[in-house]
Amino acid sequence: MATMAWWNFFEPVGVFVCHPNWVRCVSSVARTRIFDRLTPAHIRLASSAAASPDSFPPTQPLKKSPADMAKKSSSSALHRHRVVSREKWLAARTVLLAKEKAFTHARERLAAARRALPWVKIDKEYFFDGPDGRETLADLFAGRSQLAIYHFMFGPRDQAGCASCSFWADNFDPVIVHLNQRDVTMLAVSRAPLKKLAKFQARMGWGFKWVSSHGSDFNFDFNVSFTDAQVRSGRQFYNYRLGPAYCADREGVSTFYKNGSGEIFHTYACFARGIDMLNTAYQYLDLVPKGRDELPDRPQSWVDYHDRYK
């Protein structure tokens, strides 16, 4: 599939468009101007080149249709769902329990393999602007030996943070105090200037530490930010493959360790659907009858900032 042919359709508009369910401006053109100039042919072409659910970017949602807002895609199936006696339900539940236990043990083995990965020593100096002033990567550990960084999609030219990253960020504050008790510092990093981050964070009511890597190579070195030329070419190394990442900034999590001598090591990173397990709301949705109840080709079209839900 000629994945990059469709970029040419959007270049005259002055933007690069991600998966058709979301949009991220790489230029300063206002989003309203973009949609004024997009035609159905643009959207169809973008759809044909869109990434798989494993790789498309969870970024700003487009305006939702009435069907999206109603979210009744699973209702008909629920009306036909099998109903049995308590005894038969218990028998079926016991069979499923065995599968759940096997999954739990497999997950524990995977977590152990994750921890056993070799590390990469960080020799480069990185600087960040945050609520405590200018800090180095070492400073971000805040006296602890382990650091978890969420790469929040909020570029220098954006006026607000990514709606889907905001969905994830709504889960941060309650767990950080517990992570601190296990020698882990957690925070978010974005390329937008600190002033923009602070304004958006105040709007969202979040308390977690959020620092700006604006002017630093940090996001680029850890493969979550890309130049306009890289976006245009479709040659972006993201989620451990070279190909289109569709946006100038992408989401992910990176973890680091600092030893007693002050040496810092990069220990792990995950991106795209690899961060799925870090979203508490999704874990609950997986338990209820309708599940995530998302449209197959637009799985996060329902996601919005928490202060915009009706």
Using brief descriptors, characterize the structure shown.
310 residues, alpha+beta, Glutaredoxin, disordered N terminus
Task: Explain how this protein is built.
The chain is α+β, with helices and mostly antiparallel strands and 310 residues long. It folds into 3 domains: 7-72, no CATH class; 82-110; 119-285, Glutaredoxin, CATH 3.40.30.10. Helices cover 35% and strands 15% of the residues. Strands 1-10-9-4-5-6 form a 6-stranded mixed beta sheet. A two-stranded antiparallel ribbon has the order 2-3. Helix 10 links the parallel strand 5 (184-190) and strand 6 (210-212). The radius of gyration is 21 Å and the shape is globular. Mean pLDDT is 83; it is low at 1-63.
Strand order of the largest sheet: 1-10-9-4-5-6
Helix content: 25-40%
Beta-strand content: 15-25%
Q: Show unreliable segments.
A: 1-63
In short:
With 310 residues, the chain is α+β, with helices and mostly antiparallel strands. The chain contains 13 helices and ten strands.
